[in-house]
Design brief:
This protein is mainly alpha-helical. The chain has one domain. It contains five helices and no strands. Helix 1 crosses helix 2 and helix 4 crosses helix 5.
């Protein structure tokens, strides 16, 4: 029963993280267009989010799942060592760092393996955008901490 709850908590965190990071990605990109004068109505924003989820979502979910599978057990070990007061903070940071590492790894891959100078996740071009994306991972880490039973 405990393993099932842990697995469900992990999958919920991956799905919520994928949605939040994709939402932030779409919002940042659209706001860049608004900044140069584009008018983007709500219907277009929602359509763009849907397209981002459909196009980038599956890859984002797979990479988020890998990142969380590494980060969350580490957060669990560290928070147990530091004490229960650190559990939520630890999982928040683990989720946020997992997203930062994943986005950075994608960029490094494009530059080294593909010889490309583009930033594949344009919303992460500036540190403010990367941090905004990482908040989605952090909130997913908090969700995982809340749903997963605490180890004793």
């Amino acid at each position: 029963m405990n393993r099932l709850r842990i697995t469900a908590s992990y999958l919920a965190a991956v799905l919520v993280g994928t949605f939040l990071v994709s939402l932030a990605n779409t919002h940042i990109d659209l706001q860049a267009l608004v900044a140069i004068g584009a008018d983007i109505p709500l219907a277009v924003r929602l359509d763009a989010l849907g397209r981002d989820l459909a196009g980038f979502g599956p890859t984002l979910a797979a990479l988020t799942g890998i990142g969380f599978a590494i980060a969350f057990p580490v957060a669990g070990l560290v928070s147990r060592a530091l004490g229960p007061g650190w559990r939520s903070i630890g999982y928040f940071l683990a989720g946020a760092v997992a997203i930062i590492v994943m986005i950075s790894a994608i960029t490094i891959y494009y530059r080294t393996a593909l010889g490309s100078l583009i930033t594949p996740v344009a919303s992460s071009r500036e540190i403010s955008g990367l941090l905004m994306l990482s908040i989605g991972g952090g909130l997913s880490g908090l969700l995982f901490a809340r749903l997963k039973p605490a180890a004793h």
